[in-house]
Amino acid sequence: MEFRVLGPLQVVRDGREIPLTSGRQRTVLACLLLRAGRLVPVTTLIDRLWGDDPPSDARGTLQVHVLRLRRALDDPTVIGTRPDGYLITAGPDDLRRFDELTARAERARRDGDPAAALKALRDATSLWRGPILADVASASLHTEDVPQLTERCMKAVERRYELELLLGHHETAVAGLRTLTAANPHREPLHVLLMRALYRSGRQAEALAVYDRAAAVLRDDLGLDPGDELQRARQAILTRTDTPARTDTPARTDTAAPPAGAWRRLCQLPSPAGDFVGREGELARLGDLLDGDGPGVPVVTVTGQSGVGKSALAVHAAHRLRDRFPDAQLYASLTGRDAAEAASDLLRVLGVPAAEMPGGLQARAAMLRGRLADRRVLLVLDDVAAAAQVEALLPGTRGSAVLVTSRRLLTGLPGNRIVRLGPFTGDEADALLRRLIGDARVAAEPRAARRVAAACGHLPLALRIAGARLAVLPSTRLDAFARRLEDHRRRLDELALGGLEVRAGLRAGHGALDAPARRAFERLGLLANADVPGWLLRLLVGGDEPRALESLVDANLLHAGGADPVGEPRYRLPALTADFAAELAGSPRAPGNRAALARVVRALAGTAAAARDTRARSSNDLPVDDPVPLPRREAPMTGDPIVWLAAHRALLGQVVEQACAAGLLEEAARLVDLVVPLLHRQVAAASLRRLREAVRDAARAAGHEPIMWREEYGLGILSLYAAPHATTAGTWAACAEAFERLGMTRELTYALSTFTFVRVTAPAPGDATAPEPSALAARALRLARASDDRHAEIIALAARADALAASGRDRDGLTTARTALRVARTLREPHFEATALTRVSRCSLTLGDVDGAAEACTRAMRLLDDLHDRRSAAWLLRESACIAQARGRRGEAIGLAERAAAQFLALGDRHGHAAASATLADLSSRRGQRFAPHA
Fold it and tell me: Domains in the chain, please, with CATH?
């Protein structure tokens, strides 16, 4: 089967075209073919099919179109299905052939064979059959995808006619160029070529008439004056200085050689970017390093991630330094080339005839050193892949200098001084956007402009593409464009225009890696936006890959992020690189990915279990069983285990989300149930909520009710710290009902006890359906004692003490609290003991036993100090404030209440902060503060 896109969409099998009568099917196929080999998200296909007005069941309708398309193609394997989209592995055959021919033409051009280059380009342009995908009705496809492909074809056409004129085919070129300019009246290079073809055919008046028509069209249609190139062509024709090139020898304008043995001053540097901004610090540093005050030839490498602007900086710096290197400023791009080719080009430009060119690298390198001896020459080597390429081209004497750009660090290059180039600062990114789209547009939406810059990773290439797209869409709001860029699934698709594409540089960097590093990079895509410790890389790859991490850092695909709070080194994929890695990683459910995620989840769960074993058990979180042994040494936990887990909580979030996506639901649930109880008394609840919500939502989707309701319970506990308790009553009622229905007796005991606490702190007066706290607590106690669960019994006794105190039975509440205390001491569970002591303190204070309350409060505080439980300690600070007030120590009471409020605020505990603030506001009154127990 053969696919063709350079014209109307065609599918050909065995020489016969397969008709696709459905316009929707053609749109789906075209979109997949233009991204062959890459996952096309469902959202992208829906956008291509329906734009801003998709049907209510767009996803289902898309599935129907894909099914019918497979039937039409009579090959169900052509289009693959993934959880988030579709992909087609077979790309357009005409486009593949087009790319092969244009690459062949470029090689022939570099080798000085314009005739071979012209033949390849004629064959390539003959594949272009007319308007691209003209029979595919998709507005977004034709505004976002087709223009890039059309631009590639137009560039090839222009290069072809440049060679036609170079080889003297002036008359034959006129007819084709007339057709092209008529079809593309705003494309100035075509008018320039037609003018030169006419003039060199002896038709000066017609050539000047072409200029007049082009100028009129540009003014009338676009309000623009003719560009510099068009005006120079006109001037050359008027002054008769545009002479035909000779056709008996290949013309290589970039390497035209002077007479053998002669030296001429020359500058080969590309033109500096007209919109270059910022980088003043880096430019100054390059100037200092290239001064050459050492014994050898200064070699400076500008390195950084793809798209960071290495080449632009090097060219700009080289132009600034021209006066320091008056003999020559040479430039060689090593993209896809070896050092021998680059040496040959440099020697030719320095006057060595082709007939005298040595055959091997070493001989060419020696001749190059000879030609540069005792000269002051700046040599710019762009896009170097390895240190050996630079070593072969180094001048041999002082006075010259070498400026290199490379994705790699080139640490093996002797004497190399490295300048790491990072993304733009916010001000530099803003300055570039202003140059590209105008000050007024940025000033009108400054926040959106900053979001665009951030979504571009502050990378110059990405910003340039974004600016170019916005420039041709003057009515598009920056806010709308920023939202599109902030969608990680489509961001790299958005950052492509014509020949510029962020993904291309990333693909080249990835392709240059060895197999272990490529595998490591792709697996890192599973956790693309997290700070990753080094040990995790080994787990992801599934083996001991000590050099993979070094390779990724050396290639600027992975950045060292310093040390985390426990001193462990961390690494991070840059933003757009992370998107590319995620593309390569594919679905978390792929067998290799699922196994890698399972290793990571088990290692982290083992680490959390080890941390749990060093800590006293939390009193209000559901217990976690270990159905299978967990590894305890996979993750090198250093220092305090709670601090270690807190330092890795962002990583934990990504691991949990990906594990759920991979179908590792039970493993993810166990990890979350281990981690959250360890952290929720130390860190703000918001990040921990995301962990529980991810597992809950995945369990709901999978129909796994036990896990879903355990996570609902955990979310309810977190909500106690963030919302008024009255708003959580429904959660506890639902959890209790679900646990009873599912036969989860242990979980039901905890839910009833916590429900009691909520009903005490948030009464529902007048609601006859609301269960009484005493009834809830009594049932919880019966269940706990029937199951012989002593931990659950303590929680139920504490709940009963709360309920008794709330009904005015403080002495009975004190007796119950002391019973809970005795049970906790028999279990030697300090957290449960502290829970009981807080009830003893509160009931004693209400009964007027201030000393008894103070003693219980102090003992509980000591226990919590050992447990590092900041949240419960804040509640005891508030309790201590009430005790100090009862003793008449108002100043001390205010200080304790202030400390409690500050601690709650730091933890993001809005309920606790409100309670402490109320105590602080009215320390002189017991009104409204009689019963405020805490979990």
Answer: 266-420 (3.40.50.300), 426-504 (no CATH), 513-586 (1.10.10.10)
